[in-house]
Write a structure and sequence with these properties.
There is one protein chain. Helix 1 packs antiparallel against helix 2, helix 3 runs parallel beside helix 4 and helix 4 runs antiparallel to helix 5. By secondary structure, this protein is an all-alpha fold. The relative contact order is 0.06.
């Protein structure tokens, strides 16, 4: 029996939603706490009319926004941290350093991203070695016949050789140029 796999983005979505929920909960706890503290201190009376409560609630709302912003700034970077590491790793790869390895975290999505990135880096390193070997071999294989052709052409140009040697050298030049 085949079970359906949950989409990979589900866990990231759940993580973002959980963080927003935590931020809202912390903000609400602070607002309620500050309201109770200010009420106990006599700054305002919870039994007053709505008109008399406008200023205290405005202050509490501003404090709530400030606290919510601070909490969001502190905790909001947590889910983005693996992506920042991934971007740095990709920049390192694009600069030609294929020995970079990443460990983005412990969740299944983070592990899969780490494994995929590390596999990519390894494949690029192997491809770069193959390319380098190919260029070196091609350069050597290309240079060898040219050196032979050049050397025998110089000998023929000097003219201090017999007709038989000249024909032999021309045959070598033809063979090397074909090669």
């Amino acid at each position: 029996m085949k079970t359906k796999k949950k989409p990979q983005h589900f866990s990231l979505t759940f993580m973002f939603a959980a963080i927003v929920f935590i931020i809202l909960t912390i903000t609400m706890v602070f607002v309620v706490g500050i309201t109770l503290i200010l009420s106990q201190a006599g700054v305002f009376d919870l039994n007053l009319s709505l008109r008399n409560m406008a200023l205290p609630f405005a202050v509490i709302a501003l404090i709530s926004i400030l606290i919510g912003t601070i909490v969001a700034a502190v905790f909001g970077g947590i889910p983005v941290r693996p992506f920042s590491k991934l971007i740095k790793g990709l920049d390192t790869l694009s600069s030609g350093d294929y020995d970079v390895k990443l460990d983005l975290g412990t969740t299944s999505v983070e592990k899969r991203m780490s494994d995929s990135f590390n596999s990519l880096a390894n494949e690029l390193r192997c491809t770069e070695m193959l390319r380098s070997d190919f260029v070196n071999n091609f350069s050597h294989e290309f240079k060898t016949p040219i050196v032979s052709i050049s050397g025998f052409a110089r000998l023929i140009k000097k003219g201090n050789i017999s007709e038989e040697q000249k024909n032999e050298y021309l045959e070598i030049i033809l063979d090397e140029s074909t090669r």
